[in-house]
């Protein structure tokens, strides 16, 4: 029997010594966890000969056979260490981590607010970190976008400020989270330290069991009490969790070696531990059929924790077999997770490809920025839509996330720079347009009260036409300058229309008076007294001349009046020249009354031009007569030329007579002016 035990000790002694060294090294990392190094030869022998637990076997088998991937065990250990701080901390696994990358800033704030209000603060660290990371990325991009807009609208970069309501809300909620977290860990710290001290005391009690001389049953009972107290000792800091557990497990194993003196008690314990570990193995194997992979892995972590913390070792006969089953179940779960993440990586790759397409689309627009405002506005909307699609495209592989984000931002910045360059040049053109419109505005304001209608009206129309040809001005001046220009133009043309309406009324009255005068002329009966009849006709002509302009569409009334006069003069046998001079006499009187030198000068110029035209026409007709030297005077063509020639000569004499009358009138006016000047000199 002793040889069998001795052989058992020899089989496991080497691994155990190595593990003891590792435990002590890990323990020395923590100043609060001190493992007493046993110096007595008896204790050293017991340490070397201890029957190591399945956890120790797992380390050996993992190194030698590689049956369980090291990364999954490390992940489980790390998670269990994190949960060790708080019994409720495991709830973090039940809180879904959303695709925060696809959420807008407003939705990120809403999700953060929901977590802080409804979940335990220690359970949402990963969630909050993920939300903050995505919010900071999105807000930085949003801020740069607003800065670009500010600069493109004429602002200086140094003056840029932006007050974001969303950012303020996020900061408030995140500040609440940090305050709750700090309060939680501040209150938790003392409890964790107290629990740590209590567990270290239990380790000391456990160490003392092997050095006490008492009944083995009493010692075993004390051992069970220590185990129970250990289970109820409460959470400790995660940084000490693994060291404290290894130290505790180390002395558990020493105690089991001590129990070899009473194999009956040890075998009962081994049997109980085996039954419990079989339950754990069966549950771990059943997890292969669990559809919710996250929940399955969470439960696997719990099973490892129970295996590690709550259940002691089993006998050597079943040790490898049961650990192999448990490790195989763990490995199967690990493989399922690996396969799941591979599929997830495929979807991330698809998202990456989609994001590359979006980035290329933005780059295409950025390198072909339109030089037309309307088209460019459409491009801006397209880029905005692509930006939204980029955020909704989903996650990409972590190793290219930063690179993809940098490419996206650079593409958007390139577009913004090219867009801004266009608007900078456009602003320069708009400033020039503004200067031109201001000049037209000043001219319109100077003419709006003008009384020189004949000059001002075409000028105002020209100004309006020029205004339409000038392009856009800066938006902040557009409405103001247009309203000022429109006001000036409306003011002038309202005055013009008012004057025209008044003039139209007067013209209508003149038409009615002329119509009455013409009707009386039609009814005029000749008395056969030439002088009396001529005097009466002159009165009609004088009355007619006193009436001013008539509406444009009624101006043919003058021709009707002259036609009636010509018929009367024909009855009186008055020559055409005499009748023209009679009519012209009234115009001479009108010019004399107006005493307008410019009007008289214009009239003289007009008559002289008519005289020159008549002389030229006469010369042409006389030259034409030479072609008919051999023709008979009875020829219709010759008679027509002769008739036209006589008419031109008669007209020439009439124009000369009119010029004579005009000169006489002007000389008379000049003499009257000289008399007035002389009288003024004598008075002085």
Automatic annotation (TrEMBL):
The keyword Coiled coil belongs to this UniProt entry's keyword annotation: yes
Keyword flag Hydrolase: no
Keywords: Coiled coil
Residues in the signal sequence: none
Pfam family membership, one: DUF349
Domain of life from the UniProt record: Bacteria
Chain coiled-coil ranges: 604-672
Region of interest (Disordered), ranges: 1-70
InterPro entries: DUF349 (IPR007139)
Comp. bias intervals (Basic and acidic residues): 1-42, 49-65
Name used for this protein in its record: DUF349 domain-containing protein
Source organism: Saonia flava
């Amino acid at each position: 029997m002793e040889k069998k035990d001795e052989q058992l000790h020899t089989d496991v002694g080497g691994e155990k010594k190595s593990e003891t060294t590792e435990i002590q090294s890990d323990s020395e990392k923590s100043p609060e966890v001190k493992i007493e190094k046993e110096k007595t030869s008896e204790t050293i022998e017991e340490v070397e000969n201890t029957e190591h637990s399945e956890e120790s076997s797992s380390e050996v088998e993992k190194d030698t056979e590689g049956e369980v991937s090291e990364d999954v065990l490390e992940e489980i250990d790390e998670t269990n260490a994190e949960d060790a701080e708080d019994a409720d901390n495991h709830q973090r696994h039940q809180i879904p981590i959303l695709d925060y990358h696809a959420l807008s800033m407003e939705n990120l704030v809403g999700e953060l607010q929901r977590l802080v209000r409804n979940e335990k603060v220690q359970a949402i660290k990963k969630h909050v970190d993920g939300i903050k990371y995505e919010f900071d990325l999105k807000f930085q991009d949003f801020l740069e976008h607003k800065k670009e807009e500010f600069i493109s609208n004429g602002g200086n970069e140094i003056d840029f400020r932006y007050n974001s309501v969303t950012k303020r809300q996020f900061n408030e909620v995140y500040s609440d989270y940090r305050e709750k977290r700090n309060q939680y860990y501040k209150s938790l710290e003392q409890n964790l330290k107290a629990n740590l001290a209590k567990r270290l005391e239990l380790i000391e009690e456990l160490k003392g069991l092997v050095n006490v001389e008492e009944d083995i049953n009493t010692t075993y009972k004390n051992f069970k009490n220590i185990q129970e107290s250990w289970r109820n000792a409460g959470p400790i800091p995660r940084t000490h969790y693994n060291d404290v557990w290894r130290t505790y497990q180390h002395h558990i194993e020493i105690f089991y070696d001590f129990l070899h003196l009473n194999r009956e008690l040890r075998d009962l314990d081994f049997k109980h531990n085996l039954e419990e570990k079989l339950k754990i193995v069966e549950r771990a194997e059943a997890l292969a059929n669990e559809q919710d992979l996250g929940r399955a892995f969470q439960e696997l972590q719990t099973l490892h924790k129970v295996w590690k913390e709550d259940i002691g070792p089993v006998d050597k006969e079943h040790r490898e077999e049961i650990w192999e089953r448990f490790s195989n179940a763990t490995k199967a779960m690990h493989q399922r997770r690996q396969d799941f993440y591979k599929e997830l990586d495929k979807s991330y790759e698809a998202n990456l490809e989609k994001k590359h397409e979006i980035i290329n689309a933005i780059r295409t627009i950025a390198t072909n920025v339109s030089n037309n405002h309307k088209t460019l506005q459409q491009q801006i909307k397209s880029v905005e839509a692509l930006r939204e699609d980029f955020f909704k495209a989903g996650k990409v592989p972590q190793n290219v996330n930063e690179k993809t984000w940098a490419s996206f931002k650079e593409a958007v910045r390139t577009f913004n720079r090219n867009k801004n360059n266009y608007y900078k040049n456009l602003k320069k053109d708009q400033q020039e347009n503004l200067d031109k419109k201001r000049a037209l505005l000043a001219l319109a304001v100077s003419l709006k009260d003008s009384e020189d209608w004949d000059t001002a009206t075409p000028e105002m129309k020209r100004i309006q036409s020029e205004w339409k040809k000038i392009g856009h001005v800066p938006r902040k001046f557009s409405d103001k300058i247009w309203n000022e220009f429109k006001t000036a133009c409306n003011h002038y043309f309202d005055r013009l229309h008012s004057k025209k309406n008044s003039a139209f009324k007067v013209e209508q009255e003149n038409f009615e008076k002329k119509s009455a005068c013409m009707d009386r002329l039609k009814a005029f009966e000749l008395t056969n007294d030439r002088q009396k009849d001529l005097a009466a006709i002159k009165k009609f002509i004088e009355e007619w001349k006193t009436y001013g302009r008539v509406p444009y569409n009624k101006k043919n009334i003058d021709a009707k009046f002259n036609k009636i006069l010509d018929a009367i003069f024909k009855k009186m046998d008055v020559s055409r020249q005499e009748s023209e001079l009679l009519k012209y006499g009234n115009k001479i009187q009108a010019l004399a009354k107006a005493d307008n030198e410019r009007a008289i000068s214009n009239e003289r110029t007009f008559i002289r031009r008519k005289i020159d035209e008549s002389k030229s026409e006469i010369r042409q007709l006389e030259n034409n007569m030479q072609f008919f030297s051999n023709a008979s005077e009875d020829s219709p063509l010759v008679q027509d030329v002769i008739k036209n020639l006589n008419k031109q000569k008669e007209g020439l004499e009439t124009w000369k007579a009119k010029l004579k009358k005009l000169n006489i009138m002007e000389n008379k006016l000049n003499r009257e002016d000289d008399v007035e000047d002389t009288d003024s000199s004598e008075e002085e």
